[in-house]
Amino acid sequence: MSQSVVGLTCRLDVLELQEERVKSRFSHRQIHLLNPLSFTQYVVGSQLSLSQDFPHPKFCDEWNRSVTKLCEDKSVEEILRRQFNSSKDFRSLYMLLFLAVIRVSPSHSTLRESDLLEASRLISADSKANILHGLSVLELCLIIAMKHLNDTYDGEPFNFQMVHNEFTKFIHRKSHTIHKFEKPVVMKAFEHLVELEMVRVVDSATGKVQREYQLMRLMLEHGQVMEALQKYPQCPTDVKQWALSAFA
After folding, report:
1. What's 172's DSSP letter?
2. Any idea which of 26-35, 153-162, 216-225 has the lowest mean pLDDT?
3. Using CB atoms within 10 A of its CB, is residue 224 exposed (0-12), middle (13-18) or buried (19+)?
4. 140 and 114 in one domain?
5. Which residue in 187, 195, 192 sits closest to 212, CA to CA?
6. Extended strands (E) in the chain
7. Of 125, 146, 174, which residue is a domain's last?
8. Please, which residues bridge with residue 218 across strands?
């Protein structure tokens, strides 16, 4: 008699957390559910308003009027819509509102549009994109090579050898400012990206597979890479051009 176990989770790496003997018994069938929440249900006023039993009625009325006025502001609606399009999870909304509310002080007693704007800037700060700014040019080139492979093979896993081949093709072009690196040096740079969790092994059961051929995934999105390239200090022009051609 066969048995089935149905699990629900918001973690994308839940299978990677299981023991090998457990994973071997999985059917590996996954069903991804989308949140049906609409923007009209993304009610912010009710989240920010104070109840009528608040101990200071005068402040309560003043605060609630300011919240109503804030929600009618077109620029605030734009901030909220951008947040909604980024994540429909209410926890993300609460974090945005929390970062705005903590700016309130005795001299700044009500919420303003600038508070939400600053909160949005803070919550959208991308830690991985920030890490990219501190990479070496070689490591940045490997990121570009991996993103190129993602575009070419529609997001399918790749291995180090494929990344090295892609990087070598760029080095062999007629005009570039990046000198040739020995393969062990490139491998060390690649392993550093794995340590930084920019790249992740697809299946942990790869003990018998040579390092060069372990299947990997890039944990960065197109926008993160492009943003990092724009802010990377003194990024070589030909590297930027290669990235743009890779994303085309």
Report:
1. T
2. 26-35
3. buried
4. no
5. 187
6. 199-201, 216-218
7. 125
8. 199
Question: Is the Cβ–Cβ distance between 140 and 227 less than 8 Å?
Answer: no
- First vs last Cα of the chain: how many Å apart? 52
Examine the domain organization and report whether 207 and 114 are in the same domain.
no
4-28 pLDDT, tens digit each:
677 777 776 777 777 777 767 666 6
> What DSSP assignment string belongs to 68-101?
HHHHT-HHHHHHHHHHHHH---HHHHHHHHHHHH
pLDDT, tens digit, for every residue of 87-121?
Answer: 777 778 888 889 899 999 988 888 888 998 888 87
Structural domain that includes position 69 = 39-125
CA–CA–CA angle 24, 28, 157 (5° rounding): 100
Predicted confidence at residue 189, as pLDDT, reads 94
Sequence-distant (≥ 6) Cβ neighbours of residue 72 within 8 angstroms: none
